[in-house]
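Course exercise 7: structure representation. Students receive a sequence record and must write out the corresponding structure in token form. The form below is the worked example handed out in class, using 3-oxoacyl-(Acyl-carrier-protein) synthase (354 residues). Read each field label carefully; the graders check that inputs and outputs are placed in the correct fields and that the protein name is recorded exactly as given.

STUDENT ID: A-19
EXERCISE PROTEIN: 3-oxoacyl-(Acyl-carrier-protein) synthase
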Amino acid sequence: MTKKTYINGVGCISTQKTFDTVFLEEAVVNTTETVLSIVSPVYKDYISPAAARRMAKGVKNGIVASALAMKDANVENVDAIITGTGLGCIEDSEKFLKNILDNNEEFLTPTSFIQSTHNTVGAQIALSLQCKGYNFTYVNGAVSFESALLDAKMQIEENEANSILVGGVDENGEYTLSLFKLAGRIKKENDLPSNILNTTSTGVVYGEGASFFVLENERKDSTYAEILDVEIRNTLEENEIESELITFLKVNNLEISDVDAVVLGFGGNIESDVYYKNLAENAFAKTPQLYYKHLSGEYDTASAFALWMASKIIKTQDIPEIVKVNSVTKPVYNIILLYNQVNGKNHSFTLLSK
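STUDENT ANSWER:
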């Protein structure tokens, strides 16, 4: 008998105020900037100022988000910590490389180098919890977070762990962003104000964030939702996406009409948003459709923000106006499907149920 996977606690630090709030009541859509920055919590409530000073943004946000998730789930410790990140601690990587150049490769302090690896976040969380269990970081582009989620789900199903902390963390680095701008990944200033749903330009509005979840094998009072299934596909053509989704739902004994809401990763890039547009206009025309990157920005693990949002919707049974794509509503939200991809690659489907 395989165990089920429940989301029993969530914590989210994002480019919106997503802590000390009920849901998204304090969210604002920023259409005038091409890069969104984190709304910072009070770090000293979670990390000693001396330690915080030496920590990169992503590490601090990861520690706070994981602390919020564990408090929410009412657990002191977990069996495993699994993190997904696209760029890791990119700020410290940049600092170290800049130091190499500025100092002609001499007299380097190793701090930035040590802090620059992708698994710093998971390691720091483990240190703060004194958790000596399985600790793994997935770096897999836009499916980094889903890879972590899939690992956690399999461990819980196979009874290898009872409770797992899973998260997605990414931070912005100035130099890296300037490269993304050069490469045309980020919207140009004259494409602003950005309208993610009816975009006429390429590139996206970039963001950063840390979202963590406590996954456990049993239901509690704090349970948000059950994770039914996660699937990752590297490449799919535009005309394959619908049949792929129908197959994914069928494996879980569901049809499109059973889906109470679909969360789509609209990013504002006219070239790759057609994947979502096609589904929105055809297969899911009668389904409540939601989006989130106008709030979170686009980054490799933005889909963790989407999972946070979907978990909240199932628990509160309420969909904030600010995330609605269409005006279709349902009396209850029991099954939510999440779909994300970036530039037509790294497609992921995640299925939640009440």
